[in-house]
Structure formats: structure tokens, C-alpha cells
Amino acid sequence: MFVPPILLVASAGGAVHPLGDSLAVFRLYLGFISLICGGGLFLLNWRRSGLGAAVMAVAASGTILWSYDAPQPDGDLPYTHYQKNLLYVLYDPAEIIADIKQQSPDFITLQEMTPRSDGLMVALEDDYPTQSVCLGEDDRGIALASRFDMVPDSRVCMPGHGLLAVQVVTPEGPVWLVTLHLRWPFPLEQAEQVTRILPVLEKLTGPVVLGGDFNMVPWSYTMTRIETATRTQRVGRTVDTFLVEGHVMVPIDHVLAPKGCEGRVSTLDLLGSDHHGVLAHYPLGACP
């Protein structure tokens, strides 16, 4: 009965060891199990331990549950951001092309781009003159597009590290548009990947908007590191985007905007992918 509460505590230890972030993915479920274990410990006369486990479980689970129902601003917000992991086996992007045209975003960030998906970018050329694709040696990579003009020579492509950025000129001035694809967490190399890209993100001077498949939840140390480096915050409430092994939905696809810029998000259909898209609306410029 002590193991789930111990794992729950460890799920907040991503800054100490990457295993903490791996456990953080399942913190909500660890919280529920720890609450049951806390009740069992209390009944077995381990009252202080049981009460402590229960309080900790309620605090951890309650915070996460609240984030799923957090208030979002109503009304018109000036910028729309379309975030989507395409799935590398996508052969026909027609549905995604239609969805993008229907949503009419200002910023588009894509992951698991392959040469098979080139038709998507071609179909968007007229409306999105700024386009960039960054493929790795395995012909998988990331892409972005915007209806705003790109600042010359601003492109940053790190094909082996899942990062692509360009600076575009919006009505509020230059803004960095970043697309990001992180690896799975420990025992895989997500923490090491983040360590390698942080210096690049920190050098992006000025406002940053970022969309990506983080393969990580919002309450993780990984998210804190990315937000801190880019001076951003996650847009909107928590939304589930990916089904793990056919059993557990997790929120691992996110859009970030400059701190103080409150916005809202919603999920989009799968459209042939294994990730739901994220549609974000937010302001830029003079945010509170």
C-alpha cells in the first residue's frame, strides 16, 4: 500500500531524475490509487501515513482535474494556431488539408512530416507563403507554415533534435514560430533532447509561439523547462490528445504563447493520425 503514494511523490521529481516525468504522465491515476491506499492504511491503524497519502492524492488529482475544466476566454481572439502530429504513415493528406482550410489558422505546426506529405504543403502555398520543412536522415521531420512573411535568414532547423523555427512579421511585430517534436521520456532520451535544444530556444529573442508533440504532460518538468526557455505559457485548459496502448488518454500535444497571453484550445479529429489536433486561439502584443 505504500508503493503508489511513493510513486506519486516521485512523479514530481523530474528535476531530480527523468524517471519523475515518466511517472508524471500517470500522476492522475497514481493519485486515485494512492487515495484508495491511503484509506486502507488508515483502516490498518497507519493513520498518519494513511491521512498523509490521502491528502497528497487529493491535492495531486484535484489540481489535474481542475486543469481540464479551467476557464477559457470567450469572444474573438486575433490569432489562430493549428497544431498536428500527422503520423508518418499518412499517405493522403486530403482531410487535413480540408481541415486546415476550414479552420483558417495564422500559424501551422506539424510533426511526423515525410516526403509523402509534401502535397499538404503544396496545397497550402497560396494562403501560407511562409513554409519550412526540416527532415532528418530517416525522412521524418517537422514543418511549419504561416500566412505572415518570414524574416530573411531567420530559419533554424535541427533535424536530429525535433526543432524548427522561423521568425515571421505579424501586425504586432516579429514573432518566432516554433514547431517541436520531443522523443518519449525515460528510459528514452527526452530529457537529453531538451537539454540540447534549450540553448537554441533561449536565443530566440522576442515573442515566441510554439506548437508541438511534447510526448509529455503539462504538469511535467519538461514543460517547465520549455516554457521558461521560451518565456511562454501553455494556451488554454488541458486537453487529451493521444491514446496510450489503446487504454489511457493523455494530454501530450500543446500550444504555447507568450506569458500573459490568455487563450483557449480545443481538440480536432484524428483525420488519419493517432494524435488529435489542437486548435488554439490567443492574442499577441500587449497581453496583461
From TrEMBL:
Keywords recorded for this protein, A-Z: Membrane, Transmembrane, Transmembrane helix
Q: Which organism is it from?
A: Neptunicoccus cionae
Protein name, as recorded: Endonuclease/exonuclease/phosphatase domain-containing protein
Which Pfam families did the record assign? Answer: Exo_endo_phos
Domain (Endonuclease/exonuclease/phosphatase) spans 93-275
- Membrane spanning stretches: 24-44, 51-68
Which InterPro entries is this protein grouped with? Answer: Endo/exonu/phosph_ase_sf, Endo/exonuclease/phosphatase
Record's keyword annotation contains Oxidoreductase = no
Alphabetically, the GO molecular function entries are: catalytic activity
